[in-house]
User: Fold Transcription repressor MYB6 from Hibiscus syriacus.
Amino acid sequence: MRKPCCDKQGTNKGAWSKQEDQKLIDYIRTHGEGCWRSISEAAGLHRCGKSCRLRWINYLRPDIKRGNFAQDEEELIIKLHALLGNRWALIAGRLPGRTDNEVKNYWNSHIKRKLVKMGIDPNNHKLNQYPIGPQTQHVVPPRNVACKLRVSSTDNDGVSDAASYLKDETLAAGESNLDLDLSIAVPSSPIKNIEENQKKTDPTLLLFR
DNA sequence: AAATAGTCCAACCGCTATCGG
DNA sequence: TCCGATAGCGGTTGGACTATT
Assistant:
């Protein structure tokens, strides 16, 4: 069992002070990102490197978009989650200015609950047999569809393939745009078939049509 | 006004992947 | 090839805040 990286005596934990934030910002502005452990020491922060990295990535980075998620962002998260599962970093990578932590929190606190209310299982995007809430009459009969899309957790190649495919798609479309149509145009691609299948039948996607 | 419940989100923890010696 | 250090990721927690009773 490896030692935890943050068990040093004298290492700060908990909420960051404004002074600590400023030290980290100043240091990264001057020297750029690099080895987080050395950044922490060089910036005079009594924090572990991990903590510095997290603080920078999730809060201090200048390109972070803060505030509520737009409807199109929410739709994109749902689509990507149906495709990629809990790969928050990959999903966040498709949402400019959003972090994996933010997407994960938003999923757990908003979207998940919303889907449950609609009678959709947020884990596999399938309709539950006994939906909760009044909106369930809009959805189609349950079909085992989204699960076909999910790549098994051990099949990392499949996931990364899907992700890289998505990346190519967006690059072609322009990085700043939220390309909500994630259909894939390569003939004979198994992913395309999955996507098309999903388009036809995934209840979570039907809700946004 | 106080107590309690619910919600949100920043931060931590533990694990795996990757890299360099 | 092996091993240790580090980065990165996803799950979880805890505290602050808000709503409800």
